Amino acid sequence: QQRDKLKQYQKRISGNLERERALARQLLRDGKKEKALLLLKKKRYQEQLLDRTENQISNLERMVQDIEFTQIEMKVIEGLKVGNECLNKMHQVMSIEEVERILGETQDAVDYQRQIDELLAGSLSAEDEDAILEELDAITQEQLELPEVPSEPLPEKVPEAPPVRNSPKAELVAAS
User: Fold this and answer.
1) Helix/strand/coil percent split, the chain, to 5
2) How far is the C-alpha of 43 from the C-alpha of 17, rounded, in Å?
3) Sign (positive or negative) of CA dihedral 135, 140, 141, 143
């Protein structure tokens, strides 16, 4: 509010300065040098007031910025305070021993679930694997029914096949 009042004051003084300058020119034209000089001194004083007013406005604006920043800092500090209180309450609820107990229970549950998954997935023990291999061998033996081997001794010389006549190949062989 103070800043706004100072700006209004500046506008009023600026308007007065322009009028007084114009009036001083008129007085000089009319030959009233003393009155023009007095009016210019008054104008100079008002210009100094205008400069001081500008400095005050600058100080007020800086103060407003400082206040706004301090308000932001207060909000940050309040947020940190609330967060710290929340963390302390959570730490009271959860102790290190409680967390370790929960982690242990979780690991036990994971191990138990893994055992269930292995049973459902058909994981077999070493005994089961041996029984399966024996059954596979038995099935393989059943499927391989080989013909009986003759008990008579094999002939030592195999009789030759008679030559085939009237075949072009036989004629070529005989001609050579």
Assistant:
1) 80, 0, 20
2) 6
3) positive
Mean pLDDT score, 20-38: 84
Distance CA 108, CA 125 (A): 22
DSSP string for 80-98: HHHHHHHHHHHHHHS-HHH
Q: What is the pTM of this model?
A: 0.41
Domain ranges for the chain, please list them. Answer: 1-134
> Contact at 8 Å (CB) between 17 and 39?
no
Cα(65)–Cα(119) distance, integer angstroms: 71
For residue 39, count other CB atoms closer than 10 A to its CB.
Answer: 20
How confident is the model over 37-90, as pLDDT tens digits? 888 888 888 888 888 888 888 888 899 899 999 999 999 999 999 999 999 888
Q: What is the 3-state secondary structure (H, E, C) of 125-145?
A: CHHHHHHHHHHHHHHHHHHCC
From first CA to last CA, the distance across the chain in angstroms is 135
Residue 36, number of CB atoms within 10 A of its CB: 19
- Residue 31 has what DSSP assignment? T
CA distance 17 to 48: 11
> Which residue, chain included where needed, has tokens 């400095």?
55
For 98-110, what is the mean pLDDT?
90
